[in-house]
Structure formats: C-alpha cells, structure tokens
C-alpha cells in the first residue's frame, strides 16, 4: 500500500494492528491460556511478515479472508470432530480437574456445635456474618464483609471466609437481618454455597435454614488418584472410560467429567436402538425431502420459465416481477407466516379447505400432513430461484433451433422434451446438486415451521419432520440431556455426506470450467 | 381448429395458469397485511380484517396504546413495548450492512489473489473453500459459543451477546462469494491490468483503480445476496444475541410466536414493516441479482 | 544516439504451473537486434512465441533466461513503467470506467505530473489524432477505429522510446484495418521512434515493417527487410508463410540426364521435369539424386516468354479466378498443382491447355531434409 516516497503508510498500518494484538496476546497469556496465546502470537507474526516482506505479496490479499474462514469455518469443524471422540454431555459436563475439585470441596457436619446466625447488611451492599454458639453464648464471631448475589447459586468454591472472635459487648456494624428476611430475599441460596473458618480453623457452613454447624471435608485425595470417604471409609476412583468416579461396587458417584471415548459415539449411532432407529428414519426423510424439494422447485420453476419465455404472451415482465416476490421477502418472515396459515384450527388454509371441501388436514399432528406442508412451503420459497436460473438457460438457446423444429412440424411439447430439456439439463446438474445439498441442511425451514413436530413415537427427542441437521441440533442444545459428543459425531457424518456432494459437484463443474 | 385459434387457446391457458399460480403465491402477503390490522391475535386467515385496529402497529413502532382489560367495566391499561420491535429491524439492517460490506472487502481481495496471482495450492485451496463451507453453520454453534465466550473475556465488545461478535462470526462465510467474484474477475481481460502496469500503476493500484471499479456489478450482486441471507439468519443470531435490545429481526419476530402465546398481530405488523422495504430494494435491484445468479451459477 | 535500440540476447521463456513445474517453452533461445527508430514486425502463426517475446520486452512476462536491453540498459528486472516503452493491445485495453481524457492521462497522473502538463499533452495528442471532441466520453461510446486511436494516443502521451503493438488491428473490420495500417505507418514516419509490431497477418508485416522477423515454435526463422524476405526466403517455412497466394512448392529429386540437370517430380506416373539451368545448375549439382523442394512464386509463372531464363511447362487449367488486371490460375502440370498469377485480361477456360513459362532466375531450391534454402 506504500507509494513511492512519502510516509511508510504500510509499515504504520501494520504497527497499528500488531501492537494491540501483541498486547492482547500478553493479556491472554497472563490469564493462563498459553496455547491460545501462542497460536495468536504465531498468527500475528505471520501477518506482520506477510505485510512487511515482499515475498508475502500474494498472501496480503488472502490473509484477512482466509483468517476469518479458518476461525469461523475450519476451527468449528475441527472442534466438532474432536468433540465427537469425547464423552461430553450434560452428565459429563466438567473437565476432570473441576470435577475432582468439587469432590474435594464437599463437606459434612462434624461434632455437635451449632451456631445461630445473623446477617448484617452493610451500606455498600456487602454483608457481614455474625455467629453465636448455641451452647456457650459468649462465643461470638463475625466475618469480614463479603458479597452475596441474591438467588444465585455459588458454582465456584471460594476460599472459606475468615471469622474472628468478638470481644464481649462488641457490636457488629450494619443493619441486622433475621433468618426469615434472609430466606425471603433469597440470600440463603448463595449463602449455602459458602464456607467460613473459625479462628481455630474449624470449617462452618449452613445447616438447614436456621443454623450454622461445623463441617469437615468429605473426601481426601490418595496418592494413587482415588478418593477416600472420611465418613464411611469407602474409596472411589475415577473411571476414565465412563467419565465418572465409581466405588468398589462399580456404582457411579457424584457428577461426571469429560473424557475421551474413542469411536463410542459413532458406534452408538449404528447400534443404540434409541439413536439408530430415529437416525435412519430421519436420514431417509432428509434425503426424500431434499430430493423432492429439488424436483418440485425445478419442475415448477422450469414450467414458469418456459411460459414466460413465450414472446407473444402479454404482461410477461409484470408476471415475472410478481413471481419473484417470494425470493425477495426474508425467508424467516415467510416461514413464520406459513406457520400461521397452516395453523390446524384457525389457519387460512384449513378455513378455506373446510368451507369448500369440508376437510381439514392435520398439518401439525399428522406426520404426513406436516411433511406435505413442509414440501409445499419449500416449493413456495424455492421455485423463484429455479425460475430465474432456468430463464437464464433458456435465453442462451438460439431461437433458430425452434424455428428449424417448427419447419420440421414440431409442437411445443415435443420442443420442450426433445430440444429444451436435453440442452438445458446437463449444465443445470451442478445447480441441482448444490440445491440438494442446501436443502439437506435446511435447518431454518424445519426449525421455524414445525420445530420437527409431531414427535416421533418412541423416538425420544426426534420429530417426524426433523432433518438430520435439526436432529443433531436438538441433541446438542434442546434435549434436557444435551449430548455434545453424540451430536458432534452425527454432525461429522452429516458433513462427510454433504462434503462428498460438494466434491462431486466441484469435479462435475470442473470439467467445463477451469479453476 | 385453425392455427390462429390454437394459439389463442394456448394463450388463454397460459394466462389462466400463471394468474391462478400468482393468486396462490400472493394471498399469504395479503393475509399478513390484514392480520396486522386485525384486532386481537389471530393467525393470518382473512383477506380483510373484520375489526380494524392499529394497536399492533403502535406496539411495533413503540407507541403506547390503551388496551381494554375488562370488557364489562371498560377498564383499560396502557401498553408499550419494552424494546420497540422496530429496533430489531434496525439491528438487522445494521448487522447485515456491516457484514455485507465486510464480506465484499474480504472476498474481493481473496478473489483477486485466486483469479490473478499464482501461488502454491491455489486450486486445492479453492476446492477446500467450497467443500468446507458446506458444513452447516448451525452445527458450528458450540464452537462459536466457545470462541465468543473466550474473546468476550478479553475484548468485551466481541463477546457473547454483542452485535460485533455476531458480525465477526458472519464474516467467516465468504467462500461462495469468493467464487462468484473470482468468476467475474476472470471475465475481465488481463490486458486492462497489464496496460495499467505499463502506465506505471503498482499491483495494488491496478487492483484498486482498474479492477475494482470495473467489477461494481458483481459487488452489487454479492452485496444484495449476502444482505438478504443475513437478514434471514436465525440460529446463530438466536444463540449469540441474548438480550432483547440486541436481537435481530429474525430472532425478535420468532419471539412473538411462543408455543403458549402466539402474538400473530404484532408479528404480522413487524413482518409487513420490515419485509416491505427489503422487498422493494430487492425488486429495484432485480436486474443485477438475476444477472449475477445466472452468470454465477451458469458458466458460459 | 541508440537510446531506442532493442537488443534481445539468448531469450528463453518457459511457463510453469502453480507449483513452479515447467509446463511448456514458448520462446526457445532467440536473439534479435532492433535499431533505434526501426519498425520491426514479429510475424508468425499463433503460438509461435511472438506475443510472448513482445510481452517480455514490455516487462509483462518474467524472462526465464537471456537478456533484453533497451538503449544500452539491461531491462530484465525493470518494471514496465521504467523501461521507456508504451504498448497498444489487441483489445485496446481502454479502462471502461474512465473518460477518454482520463484513459490517456492515467499514466501521467500516476507519474505525478503537473495538471497543466497533463492537460496540455493529452490535448495536443488528442487533437493530432482527431479525438479532441470526444475527450469526455467513455470508451463504450466510441467506434472500433476511434478506440484504436485512443489506445494509440495513450501510448503517445507516455513519449516512450519504444512502441510495442500486440496485434492492434485484428479487432477491426477489413476497411478500417487498411486505414489504421497507414495511420500507424504515418505515425512512425512522424515520430521516428522504434516500434515493435506483432501480427499474424503477413500482409500487415510486409506493408509496415522496415524489417520483419518471422517466427515459428519459439524460434526465429528469418529476419530481413520485406523484399529480401520475399525474394530470398531462408527456409521452406518462410517461403510458404510469406506471400499470398503462397509459393508453389514441388517435391522431387535432382537428376542428371544427357549431361544436364533436371528437377524430377516425386511421383511414379508422368512426373514433371524441369531443367535446372543458369544459376540453379551449380546449386543443384550438389544434390544429384537427393530430395529437394523446388519453389517458385505464382507471379513467376507466365503465359508468354519474356526472358531467356524461362522454360516452358505444359499444364491444364483447373480453376481460373479473373481479378481484372490479372488472373489467378490453378493449374495441373503432371501431378503437381500450381498457382500462377498471370497479368493481362486474358480469360482462361476450364480444361484449357496452357504452356506456362517458369522463370528460373526466380526459383528457390530447398534441401528437403533440413528445409533450408540451397545457396
């Protein structure tokens, strides 16, 4: 970007980007994400090299685009493939270290000392805890001020708050709150997650809503990585295959952790009847939906294109403009509009059908009704694109061909099937394939129109109209037992299918178009 | 039947078919408009509203209005949208405009390299771009969440629940546009740039002063296509944007249609209000788009 | 003195693919000297390497090996703009989004010349080319000839030492082409600059060039002025390429009969025999019983004896194309097909027996093995 003479604009621009980037790298490094910081450092240096040294000239044009592509297209794919080999779900949510830490923070009441407590609200919004020993009322303690967020559970275990003994007659500052008030203001929820240490080191924590009691650590870590229960002396050890701590009887204890699972998720797709059944049914429907959508939109689009190419027809321009409308309206809006029109009880479609034919198809509750509706809506959304493409193709056929066939005594039908279609179809194949691939992953349509409904009987979270991509989405995000690992495995399979389609398409186009 | 009559019959049939088809296509639009003016919340089902009311429009525009709570006593209450739905429309426009501009910048520079410069793995990179882009964005959501959660910790404007974060994610989807623009660049004779080089232009000047101005038509196409696709994007926006004042049109419009309470009237008013300008812009640029679609899809 | 001379030495161009592997060699070691102020035409069939050579002179293609010097300076590593050249392209390469003025001024603007200087230079040049009334128009509003002139003007305002033309007339219709041809020639006479002109059209080459360089398959076949090229082709390729209709080329052997030498056509039946007398005799004597090719231009076949060097050959008229002052007559002599360009308004009839006179002074003999002329 530098011009001969004058300021070294390019160097200044590079510096303006690189310096903040390096600062960011340093920040990230300090928070402990060493790998990310390293990766960013490499990318920043690479970028600086490309923009400062002459050999990188070509890459100056590619760098920003490919960087974005790498971050938001390639990284998610790699990440997903990685997840597909792990056990990672709502049951196995945490990393092993976090899960272990949770065990080590678990406490249980020891001894029989109980304490009555009060909270003193401070002016700056913090609180001070006041404890009084039930047996020996002269033993009184107060904490340092701490924060409490009403109603929010404490997820991260913090250092126990320090309690110091109060001299006789010493008063705690602030506005005292009774137990009832603490309960009402939902302050007990964060309080339950906190621990405090008496001056002698004994830990105390909330016992019920009324009292505090002294507590001891439930688990101790042994050298071999197992945990011993201080209360009943049982031993549990991590099972990295299951992603759980298990006791001697093999029973799972506590919360699970993320772990590598090899091909388990893939095997599950093929063998687990709860997954396999819906998977293949959904796969079939996905293929059928994509195929039929392409066929329908292409047929209607082609028919309209042929009619509108007829030079003697009046109002062709007006017709064409109006027919393109569905393509111009944002699809989200149209899909939601159709959701209303096909409403089973009150929708326009059924009101019309009821008043004319006396029937009211079950678009929402009957799987076949829902499927027909989806295809109809997708036809409405998709035919204008096909019409535009076909119009372009038709206009590239020289009209002398039709004049010649007219002299040979042809008619429009023969013209279409013997001349137009054979000429137009081969160059359209790549477009039809990419349209197929698009519909294969047409998440929006299904998600917004039926949300996969109606539910598949015995299919768990699978819906009768779910496409594979929606099914995967549901497994990952919507199910109460979200399972990222399994979802990633299905997504990988999905990607291979669609990627293959794209590759075939590329090879086919590659024959007439040089890259 | 004479030849003349035959053609007449065909013409009538063609007109009849197209008109019937058009009615089927256009009726939904009319019904939505009618639903937006209809009192109460009914799924679009009538060509004309029975009871006309402007309440839904007022709600969408953020104007307070009176709603009868108890018909017997005539008691009313004032209703005003917490977040004016029009804001979602504005958010969508903003996000789509910036993303589309960014897309043009990123994809035109990359397309230039692919079309005009020679480097290792050029063809394989091009193929990889096309194939990898086939991976549905929806399934990248877990990764997007991880990325934005991370960036948010260090750069708070690019985190979760920020529009800048969403735009950043959108800028990844450039490969189709790279292909389109590259195709167009290749139709421009290389002698133009060679001539400029002899005139003393540097490579960058050739790109900016010769190639870019000559490629304005394809930029218009790419801009419109990407704009429309971002206006319609739902899943990523719904995950990234959490607070309602950040929502886009797609997320906001869908929020009116909860399973329990479907606010069809408000939805319809919002759909008309935001759908009409986009549709009009599209139709105005129709010629560009059609040209771009046919030349992009169908190589001569 | 010689600041516009161009020296090409051992020039080679090998194209490579994306990964740097050589794909094919367009120019295989050529050397050529072009004098200051000379109009040099590079001519040859498509794919002969003439355009590649020109583009290497311009600096648009990297040189694989060898050197190019303009003036006394080696320009291999110089940017096009620093070589003192201007180029006119086949498709004119006018910038469609700029006005004619800006098209012509673009190079000067990039060189940061003063505004007054630019408008002055462009104004003067456009006036000379008759473009001054359309400076504010854009290229698409101009006719082919006008666009061609703008392209010329754009080259002129750069005031280069060397003009490069890459088939500049092939996009014009026949009439326009003739007109522009003479305009470029006139321009050369006025400016006196070195010009290198690439064309595949040998008529253009013959009419415009001070010297002509004929190329084939990346090699130079012959460099000569038009007349010498026409009269004394160095090899079969040049003989066949230059001249329209082309030279008659007959395959055969030299044979000695009764003490004199004959060219005998290489067929079994009824071969054509032509005596090789005069200046041909010493040439042919080295090739007795060897394959040679006998070449004679159509205009050196006549229907009357004008010269002692003429030898008669009997032939039959197959096609006659009367063109007014002369006729092209397609003849069959023995098994050989001959074209004769015969002056006069004589009408030839199909199947008519004609005795054509071969002017042996104008005959070229070629070695059939090397395809080179026998000297």
How do you describe this structure in short?
The complex is a heterotrimer of chains A (515), B (300) and C (375). Chain A has 515 residues and is an alpha+beta fold. Chain A is 55% helix and 13% strand.
Structural write-up:
The complex is a heterotrimer of chains A (515), B (300) and C (375). Chain A is α+β, with helices and mostly antiparallel strands and 515 residues long. Chain A folds into 3 domains: 9-69; 107-217, D-maltodextrin-binding protein, MBP (Periplasmic binding protein-like II, Beta Barrel), CATH 2.40.430; 272-512, MetI-like (MetI-like fold, Orthogonal Bundle), CATH 1.10.3720.10. In chain A, 55% of the residues lie in helices and 13% in strands. Chain A has 17 helices and 15 strands. In chain A, the strands form 3 sheets. A 7-stranded mixed beta barrel of chain A has the order 2-3-4-5-7-8-9. Chain A is elongated. The two termini of chain A are 28 Å apart. The model of chain A is unreliable at 511-515 (pLDDT under 50). By secondary structure, chain B is mainly alpha-helical. Chain B has 2 domains: 3-79; 85-297, MetI-like fold (Orthogonal Bundle), CATH 1.10.3720.10. Helices cover 68% and strands 4% of the residues of chain B. Chain B contains 14 helices and 2 strands, in the order H-H-E-E-H-H-H-H-H-H-H-H-H-H-H-H. A two-stranded antiparallel ribbon of chain B has the order 1-2. Chain B starts with a helix and ends with a helix. Residues 296-300 of chain B have low confidence and may be disordered. Chain C is an alpha+beta fold and 375 residues long. Chain C has 2 domains: 6-241, Rossmann fold (3-Layer(aba) Sandwich); 248-367, OB fold (Dihydrolipoamide Acetyltransferase, E2P) (Beta Barrel), CATH 2.40.50. In chain C, helix 2 (100-110) packs parallel to helix 4 (144-157). The two termini of chain C are 36 Å apart. Chains A and B meet through helix 1, helix 3, helix 8, helix 9 and helix 10 of A and helix 1, helix 3, helix 4, helix 5 and helix 9 of B.
